[in-house]
Amino acid sequence: MLRSQSSKGSATTGNIVSPDQLQVLTRSIQAVSPTPLLIAVDQEGGKVSRLKTRAGFPATFSFAELGRLNDLATTRQRSNDIAKTLHRFGINFNFSPVVDLNSNPKNPVIGSLGRSFSADPDRVTEHAAQVVAAHRSQGIATCLKHFPGHGSSSTDSHRGFVDITETWEKSELLPFANLVKADLADAIMTGHVYNAHLDTKMPATLSRSVITGLLRKKLEYHGVIISDDLLMDAISQHYPFTESVERAVNAGVDILLICSSDGKIVGETVSLIYDLVQKGRISEQRIDQAYRRISRLKSNLRNRPTLD
After folding, report:
1. Arithmetic mean of pLDDT, 15-25
2. Residues 268, 273, 278, CA angle at the centre, nearest 5°?
3. Does residue 248 surpass a pLDDT of 70?
4. Going from the N-terminus, what domains does the chain have, and what CATH number goes with each?
5. Does residue 158 have an active-site annotation?
6. How sure is the predictor about 156, in pLDDT bands with cuts at 50, 70 and 90?
7. Nearest CA to 42 among 6, 87, 4?
8. Catalytic residue among 81, 158, 163, 233
9. Spatial separation of the C-alpha atoms in residues 48 and 96, rounded to whole Å
10. Do residues 224 and 255 make contact, with C-beta atoms less than 8 angstroms apart?
């Protein structure tokens, strides 16, 4: 995953410095891999844009701005601008669009950052569909987030436990359900949110009831599921890393997102999963399922025509 350099000395220093540097980076990464890689970024638009204007990348509009304007042609054009930029710089997977409802405008991680199109599930669905279509026209996969809905929360899962039991509504599932039904879900990202109505013990990312029971079976979604960052405080402060990996994979997550500048963590996580399989804590079938879904996503990318 690509992240912009931080000027504040954060733990995750980032690997996006400039347009020229990014182009060299993505080409070199693909060149040394025996199989095509998914190179991902958070480029939603507005405040959540890893390709920063200060680093020389084009300016973007937030989803909140586009939702207020409520012109689908404009959303399609702005999304196409982003998709063309990503294509130009060798990025083929955008962790966007956010389909959380703006249920709580003061939400510190969704509403207050302008990341939601609207509190209206139909408007969210319509605009998100334009984002997906624009990216697909450039051969880029997208990712709906944050299942089963993060828009009603009053706290930030980056900073601690998030309980949405009393605020979440079933309508928050509608954009996910609508887009899955319309075959507009390349991938779906889980939210680190706890909802006792859906699982009395585990947050969504670690919950088989939420991931397999609700998303896979009830909403009939068969594509890639990716976790939000497992090092976010909502998970890391409450579950040992080994447990969070085991629970996420067994819940039905296919890709584990781990945002860290520690160069050893990928190898260590692969070894951990291998060990869990050897011990019978994770089945080989579960790994095969994830592999097939990821392979299908990559194949779909290669087969999509690019419109320049």
Report:
1. 94
2. 125
3. yes
4. 19-303 (3.20.20.300)
5. yes
6. low
7. 4
8. 158
9. 10
10. yes
Cis-peptide into 240, omega within 30 deg: no
In angstroms, rounded to a whole number, what is the distance separating the alpha carbons of residues 295 and 188?
16
Question: In the structure, what pLDDT confidence band is assigned to residue 262 with cuts at 50, 70 and 90?
Answer: confident
Range of lowest pLDDT (154-163, 189-198, 210-219, 288-297)? 154-163
Which tens digit of pLDDT belongs to each residue from 127-136?
A: 999 999 999 9
228 annotated active-site? yes
* DSSP per position, 236-275: HTTS-HHHHHHHHHHHT-SB-----S-TTHHHHHHHHHHH
Say what the pLDDT of residue 7 is: 45
Residue 72 tokens, joined: 């689908």
Whether 67 shows a pLDDT value over 60: the answer reads yes
Could you say which of 156, 228, 229, 254 is catalytic?
228
**pLDDT higher than threshold 70 for residue 8:** no
pLDDT of residue 225: 98
For CA atoms 61, 63, 69, 72, give the dihedral sign.
positive
**């009831």: which residue's tokens?**
209
The yes-or-no verdict on residue 213 having pLDDT over 90 is yes
